[in-house]
Amino acid sequence: MERELSRNSKGARLWLKPAEYDRKTGKLRKRSVWLIRDGEISLVTGCAPAEREEAEKQLADYIATKYKPDREKDRPAAQILVTDVLQLYAEEVAPGHARPGKTSERLVQLGEWWQGKTLAEVAGKTCREYTAWRVGQPWKSAKPEKTGKPPRMVTEAGVRRELEDLRAAINYHRKEGYCREVVEVTLPAKSVAKERWLTRTEAARLLWTCWRTREMRTIPKGPRRGQLVVSDRYRWRHLARFILVGLYTGTRAAAICGAALKVTPGSGYVDLDQGVLYRRPHGRAETKKRQPPARLPPRLLSHIRRWAQHRGDDTISKTHVVEYQGVPIRETNKAFALAVAAAGLGPDVTPHVLRHTAATWMMQHGADLWDAAGYLGMSVQMLERTYGHHHPDHQQSAIDAVTAKRRK
């Protein structure tokens, strides 16, 4: 007999317990705190309302270690919780992703809204309701109380990425034989492709800003205590190295940050002898995001070899191409945005713009489409459709034909 699914079962989730006050005096007795609730289980996270991100990490850890989704085969969609599907995907697929932490964050976010719902409830209507609920929310990573800037809001493009994870999780669950029905996820429309790229002048300005900017420090004591002064430490020189690699190779940001200086399991690497950048992490299967090896331009190779020269504690790159204070960096989004603003460029300049810039420059200088596509790791059709209009020979045969004199 097939197991009945309880209507009250909502799966593990976060709940903000309200603060408690003394009825007589009105004094605060217990502060508001995030709890992990899972049926009759209730765990205190110790996180205040503003510490939602930390509470979500604890929820993810709890789910990974304590909660086991039902793995009964060939069940109808109405008996399968969406949160069970997400948890199975988080355990068996997400760890193999390039950035498993980001995938885990999106899965937790999905579970917040879909908790208590079954696969039978996944339809166009509920997907649109999720989109309407999610759009306009601040990203969990935003900390306006620290930065003093308004938080970045979730857009339809961000919701589409989350629902793509939901679709992938459902498809994996069905292929494993746990669900007998096909469940379709309706995605928001794709956003218009961005065509932003850097001119040579803009790229030089950004590089110069990253190379020259120094950190500010506060004098700790003495008559000038509390005064901000310029320190001897350069703030964004690691970004200058990141930008050089991006402009010269068109490599995605995650692959640049993960590039080691020797063969390292789970990381791409640079062969300093042969001058080749192996973008795909060593030992990992190839995904739909092509990551072919790329020959490094001689000038960039000279830079990387110089960064890797052993200078004791002053070695620029000890284990990875891009390091900050001797430690490999995981991502550059926040520091990159600050450097872009300092260089006088707009917020539309993101780390991915470096890839657009490399492809655009290749086309402007007449690179062979086949060679450029192979170097960048994209199809010739994609390269021609997105960047082909920058090529000096773009539509040249059509122009020659329409302007040629008619033969008698």
Automatic annotation (TrEMBL):
SUPFAM superfamilies: DNA breaking-rejoining enzymes (SSF56349)
tRNA processing keyword on record: no
InterPro entries named among the record's database cross-references: DNA_brk_join_enz, Integrase-like_cat_sf, Integrase_catalytic, Tyrosine_recombinase_XerCD
Region feature Disordered, mapped onto this chain: 389-408
Domain Tyr recombinase: 193-400
Recorded superkingdom: Bacteria
Pfam hit, one: Phage_integrase
Keywords from the UniProt entry: DNA integration, DNA recombination
Name of the protein this chain belongs to: Tyr recombinase domain-containing protein
